[in-house]
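# step 3/5: fold
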Amino acid sequence: MEFKTFVFYCLSAVMVFAALRVITARNPVHAVLFLVLAFFTMSGVWLLLEAEFLAITLVLVYVGAVMVLFLFVVMMLDINIERLREHFWSYLPMGALVGLLMVAEMVLVVGGRYLSAPGAPAAQAAGYSNTREIGLLLYTDYVYPFELAAVILLVAIIAAIALTQRRRKDSKRIDPARQVAVKARERVRIVPMRAEKD
């Protein structure tokens, strides 16, 4: 078995395991850690395919977005942070395991370039850029699905804003049109009152 094939099978096994643990883990902290591991492992597979741009984009965009998602999950689930900090050391073995798996994947992917791996892909020309090839393919053959995805994302953004800005009965709102239409004599009203002795 070639070294590259062995690395691919290792990364695939880790990715399938991490994806299963994302949906089976009861603790949201563990689920997010396994999701980060799945994204990181997928970026290793992209590196094996010599798609460095996609691998870096996957790590920067998705892993960063997962951290933002984790922040929103913590805020929306009303998790007691103080109670989580008390059990910080109980999460250390899981975090250390995920970290060790990431380091092992990096060693396998990067180490494969320096080992004499049989069946290495053919070298590309000096001016070859996989980012340019992705752009050409995306904006020529897949331009309609790309535009459709952009419209769907736009509709999702508008829907999210509409859901957050909907009127609720318990919210107190001030109508700016009524504020501007107020006359000077309506702003202050003096009410005469009789003085009373205690």
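# step 4/5: annotate
The longest helix spans residues 88-114.
# step 5/5: archive (pending)
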